[in-house]
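Could someone model adenosine-5'-triphosphate with this protein?
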Amino acid sequence: MISLSNVSKIYKSKLKGSQPVKAVQNIDLDVDKGEIFGIIGYSGAGKSTLIRMLNGLEAPTDGSISVAGREMSKIRGSELRKARQEISMIFQHFNLLWSRTVRENIAFPLEIAGVSREQRLNRVDELIKLVGLEGREDAYPSQLSGGQKQRVGIARALANNPKVLLCDEATSALDPQTTDSILDLLQDINERLGLTIVLITHEMHVIRKICHRVAVMEGGQVVELGKVLDVFKHPEKPITKRFVQQITEPEETKDTISHLAAEFGQGMVIQLSFAGDDAEKPVITHLIRHFDVEVNILQGKISPTQNGSYGTLFIHMLGDEAEVSRAMAYLNESKIGIEVIENA
Amino acid sequence: MLEKLFPNVDWAILLQETLTTLYMTGISVVATFILGIILGLLLFLTGKGNIWENRPVHLIIGAFVNIFRSIPFIILIVLLIPFTKAIVDTMIGPKAALPALIVGAAPFYARMVEIALREIDKGVIEAARSMGARVTTIIWKVLIPESLPALVSGITVTAIALVGYTAMAGVVGAGGLGNLAYLDGFQRSRNDVTFAATVVVLIIVFIIQFIGDAITSKLDKR
Ligand SMILES: Nc1ncnc2c1ncn2[C@@H]1O[C@H](COP(=O)(O)OP(=O)(O)OP(=O)(O)O)[C@@H](O)[C@H]1O
Ligand SMILES: [Mg+2]
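Reply:
Sure, complex below.
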């Protein structure tokens, strides 16, 4: 559905003497039809620049971009405007027209596409139902909550039956609960309409919850790419590890673990990670039945992703050296990931 | 009672001069509104980072606007005499004041329009572009509606300034309340005439302000 090859974007700096900014460098990327594809990266990584090239709001300096069968970098004028009606976008700050009601905002792209008044009204009603805004049709954006505004944004983006939906930090201005409800809506739309979604974010939670595949961006490049579960299982780059830790190790985990380890004074703290079906194996039971070790569970967490669940478990293991190393050998053999955090 | 306070005021003349002032103000406000919005849109759209970014055009319009905005009105009237003669074919009467009123006020208003347009959230314009809107659609359906309260409050200020300009134009022969206050009142030492004309001007200004404020607050849905 979307295919990028060797795409770069360089901004020439207007200040004399300063270096041009390489916002995006040599990106190759393919997004399949019906996929929810996530792009994660820190501020300034070039995510917005990349996504804005997908609908021609920015032109690439180099490379080619094809979206829904159109060569975006080559078309302009009316052909580009037509293409944009098939590639919708939602925004972090919603970007609704404050002078229009919910209904009129949603009708706007239909007006642009030249849809007749009667058909517009019908379509708007459908969309209002789809995004769950019944009863708020005649409200102005200033009378809506952030989550409701984004629902209007989504309805507006879906109005012309696009093939691709681009989301630029669509949930970054929302609280966690509202974020989840918007993500549920996006997933629902993806499943019901078979819409291809490209979504950028700096929150791993968003990737975990709805994306099928993820690309990690740093310094204008894609440094890691794969199925979400695989990236959780084997993050390669340090930046990816940090993103994965956003989910597997909430802030306070590190402190708690080292605090507990200090209190135990002996034994070792191990982080086990499970992915997919492994998560269902009774590893701990096996451990205490077959080896003469004591096992304390310190913390555990399961994070479901679109390709299966990913779980982490922090345990404290105590026993004599020979038993502990036999137990470790068993763990190493089973397909779960292990990492020794503290070894007293 | 009124006869006592205003012994020299001829009410029929006062009414007629009021209508002349309203005529000059009305026509010039409408023309200024249209011309100012066109100039303001051009200034905005050709500005840096905008849809029609074009430095030379932007600078030329900007210079034109700044020059005409800076010339004192009374001098502008004199400078425009040949121009006025060419288009309205007379130098006296309310019609003769119109070119100078419009040329004086439109650039003033154009700057306000430009500022109002710059206040619009860039994201909204971008959203419209991402939907495949053409520039004319963006102008009519995004730029103007989204800045309308500011455009109206700007034209209110401009209209009030125009009432003042008509008074000055009156002095040089255009008629109206300014002319009445100066020629009939001041020069013939009839203070009551000056006073009555002033009161009417004030009432006009208050009414314009009131209507402008009411429309602005009705339009503003933010
Ligand atoms: N119009 C522009 N002119 C010059 N430089 C730009 C422009 N737009 C973006 N950049 C630069 O390109 C780089 C990437 O910016 P971009 O907005 O794509 O980052 P981002 O990953 O979306 O960050 P954020 O998470 O903060 O939105 C930054 O260094 C930025 O300063
Ligand atoms: Mg961004």
